[in-house]
Design goal:
This protein is an alpha+beta fold and 378 residues long. The protein has 15 helices and 7 strands. A hairpin with a 7-residue loop joins strand 5 and strand 6.
Length: 378
């Protein structure tokens, strides 16, 4: 959402900058906003660059300089992100209709092939066109409205690009599935398509005789998904935390500092209590396939093994070495969790609660025997 706001603001500033007698600083604002977009969402940075490129090709010569100056910082930022570390941990491949196939699997629909599958994949685009999502020629290609050209190109490109490519992590951990991030292109185009839809519907609704039909069309398009979302959320059980765990996290927050690391058993609840209730860090190693876009599969497996070993080893020196390697100062134990090394002299109880058990502080002072529920540090 911040990236969409920046992209739209860049187009608005570009539109103002190309008006007769516009202040020169408007162009600088447009360039600054366009250059910031990729850092919020690189997919939208690429799509904005595509829109500006289309507008540049269709623009009259006097306006091409403004478009080039706006597109330049966006191109530099997008290229740096794609060719940098992010480009090494993301796989981009041409995979026609892969996103549609994954969507069918997610919806529990039977696999489809041939023309029926292609028709199903393109049905949303056809519905969009019939609903008035196609920008009028005057809106999209008017020489006086170069920003609308870019906006139209961004709005109409998301669907075909999303269906054409597979953008995903090059590898995942055991038990995880590849996620096609090309879906972002489709999602980004949705709000932009509706901008044109709003303009088209406003023109139609200006006629009183058609207003009821416009309202009915809006209800037809928006109500089913809204009802489905509300019903699903109402049936979703809330995530509950025992009161003892909440109070233990309050104690942890009082004795720790932002940035402190809390050791907890691999596979514990997600999101982890120290993160959501105390704002403290936890060594996490396998909770989402997106992690392999930032760290290699081998490094994540090694992290998992180290955290697992901390809770299994009877060797106190090895356990403390693992904790030091992760910068951990606290240990969180939930329910039946325990450590197997001798904790005398290295764990200082922060709080004692009935199940679940939570942190001890790793310290050099002698500690009382671990209670059935505790928060310790050290």
């Amino acid at each position: 959402m911040p990236a969409l706001a920046l992209a739209l603001a860049a187009l608005v500033a570009l539109h103002d900058a190309t008006r007769e007698g516009a202040p020169t600083n408007r162009l600088a604002v447009a360039a600054l906003l366009a250059g910031a977009v990729p850092f919020f969402k690189v997919f939208l940075g690429a799509q904005l660059l595509l829109g500006l490129g289309v507008a540049l090709l269709l623009a009259r010569p006097p306006r091409r300089l403004a478009l080039a100056l706006t597109a330049a910082p966006c191109a530099v930022a997008t290229t740096a992100l794609v060719l940098g570390q992010g480009g090494e941990t993301v796989r981009v491949a041409i995979a026609p209709f892969d996103l549609a196939r994954i969507t069918r699997e997610t919806l529990g629909l039977l696999p489809a092939t041939g023309w029926r599958f292609a028709a199903w994949a393109a049905s949303g685009r056809r519905l969009a066109g019939r609903a008035g999502l196609r920008p009028r020629r005057g809106d999209a290609v008017s020489p006086q409205r170069i920003s609308r050209r870019g906006l139209a190109a961004m709005a109409l490109s998301g669907w075909p690009l999303g269906l054409a490519f597979d953008v995903s992590a090059p590898e995942v951990l055991p038990g995880q599935r590849f996620v096609n991030d090309a879906a972002y292109l489709v999602e980004q185009s949705g709000p932009l398509l509706w901008l044109f839809t709003a303009l088209a519907l406003a023109r139609i609704a200006s006629n009183r005789a058609r207003r009821a039909g416009v309202v009915a069309l809006l209800v037809l398009l928006a109500l089913p998904s809204t009802v489905q979302y509300a019903v699903k959320k109402s049936r979703t059980a809330p995530g509950r935390l025992p009161g003892a765990m909440v109070r233990a996290m309050d104690a942890l927050e009082r004795v720790s500092q932002p940035g402190d690391v809390v050791m907890q058993r691999p596979g514990a609840r997600y999101p982890p209590a120290p993160v959501v209730l105390a704002g403290r860090r936890v060594p996490y190693e396998r909770f989402t396939p997106y992690l392999t876009q930032f760290v290699s599969r081998e490094a994540l497996l090694a992290r998992h093994e180290a955290v697992y070993r901390f809770f299994r080893t009877p060797d106190r020196d090895e356990a403390l070495a693992i904790a030091r390697s992760m910068g951990a100062r606290f240990l969180a134990l939930y329910g039946g969790d325990r450590v197997r090394f001798d904790t005398a002299g290295v764990l200082e109880p922060v709080t004692r609660r009935r199940a679940p058990r939570v942190p001890d502080r790793l310290s050099g002072r002698p500690a009382a025997p671990p209670p059935s529920s505790s928060t310790t540090s050290g």
